[in-house]
Design goal:
phosphatidylinositol-3-phosphate binding; 38% helix; globular; alpha+beta; PX Domain; 159 residues; membrane; endosome
Length: 159
Amino acid sequence: MTQGVQFLAPEPIHLTDNESPAENSPQRSLHFKQITVGDCTIVNGQRSKFSVWQIQLVLSPRSNTGNSSPHIQLYKRYSDFVVFRESLLGSLPPDLRKSVPELPPRVSWYDSWRYQEANFNSSWLARRRAGLEFFLNQVLLNDKLLAKAGTCIRAFLEN
């Protein structure tokens, strides 16, 4: 007994933007409430292992009526932070560049021969996590940096 499967086309999706144009404009600044760099995940790549850091961003509520704050969760490699910092410094005027902190150090040159072991040491990873969190908090909670480098910051968060 064979029965045919009837194909039903999906219903179209209708999206509605209920936000006012002022909230959606590129000039609207980002407002972060809390930035946390969480645990890292060790990924086995084709050539070597690397760590990916979980970043949790809590945004300030858009209106006073709601109690919940929007959350964004993303994952970045240390190399993403390096590229972001270089891009950030390039997009800022000289007087604001000193506001951008250094990133936690790379694996030291004398440990590079045993990179896999050094890069995944739990105490070293904990120091790196704290350094990345400090970096993001200093950048994303600084209104002057957000105003001058909003495009660069959005690119880091969206890619």
